[in-house]
UniProtKB/TrEMBL annotation:
InterPro entries from the UniProt entry: Ribosomal_uL15, Ribosomal_uL15/eL18, Ribosomal_uL15/eL18_sf, Ribosomal_uL15_bac-type, Ribosomal_uL15_CS
Entries under SUPFAM superfamilies matching the protein: Ribosomal proteins L15p and L18e
Source species: Candidatus Shapirobacteria bacterium CG06_land_8_20_14_3_00_40_12
Binding partners and assembly: Part of the 50S ribosomal subunit.
Segments of skewed composition (Gly residues): 21-31
Lineage: Bacteria, Candidatus Shapironibacteriota
Ranges of residues in domain Large ribosomal subunit protein uL15/eL18: 79-150
Residue segments, region Disordered: 13-41
Encoding gene, per UniProt annotation: rplO
PANTHER family: 50S RIBOSOMAL PROTEIN L15, LARGE RIBOSOMAL SUBUNIT PROTEIN UL15M
MF terms in GO: rRNA binding; structural constituent of ribosome
Keyword Disulfide bond (UniProt): no
Pfam families: Ribosomal_L27A (PF00828)
Role played: Binds to the 23S rRNA.
Entry protein name: Large ribosomal subunit protein uL15
Family: Belongs to the universal ribosomal protein uL15 family.
């Protein structure tokens, strides 16, 4: 059986290459762009506004300083020692996993960034903390209550 006789015809034509000389199919001189002017010569800058009188769109934007979105995303969530005192019993181990279980208000998407424990309030229970960030004053209060900090 002859394969060449059963080939389907090609429907789509290849695009004409503009501005590549007279033989390219679309003229060599102006190539469909018209005669003179800005639209012939190329694209304008993104900051170009057209006149000197009105304020350019870049200068109309608010003058913001600092890092915004990225700075806000990198902050971890905080819990106080008084909140931990209410939830845990004496002798319990406090880990990231059970913190997110016992505190439903914490955003689960922030699990990777973790939680930092602040020293607000008092702690009388002996607790063991595993791989959790805390402030210096919070570590002093945990050690004073007889707790341990691992990792």
């Amino acid at each position: 059986m002859n394969i060449l006789s059963h080939l389907k015809p090609i429907v789509s034509k290849s695009a004409k290459r503009r501005g590549r000389g007279i033989g390219s199919g679309v003229g060599g001189h102006t190539t469909g762009r018209g005669a003179k002017g800005d639209k012939v010569r190329g694209s304008t800058k993104l900051t170009f506004d057209g006149t000197k009188i009105k304020k350019s769109w870049i200068k109309r934007l608010p003058f913001l300083r600092g890092k915004h979105r990225t700075n806000a995303l990198n902050k971890f969530q905080t819990i106080t020692l008084s909140q931990i005192e209410k939830v845990y019993k004496s002798g319990d181990t406090v880990t990231l996993k059970n913190i997110f279980e016992k505190f439903p208000r914490l955003d689960a998407r922030m699990y990777k960034l973790g939680v930092k424990i602040l020293s607000t309030g008092t702690l009388q229970k002996k607790l063991t903390f595993q791989n959790i960030k805390m402030t210096e004053s919070a570590t002093k209060k945990v050690n004073a209550a007889g707790g341990k900090i691992e990792g």
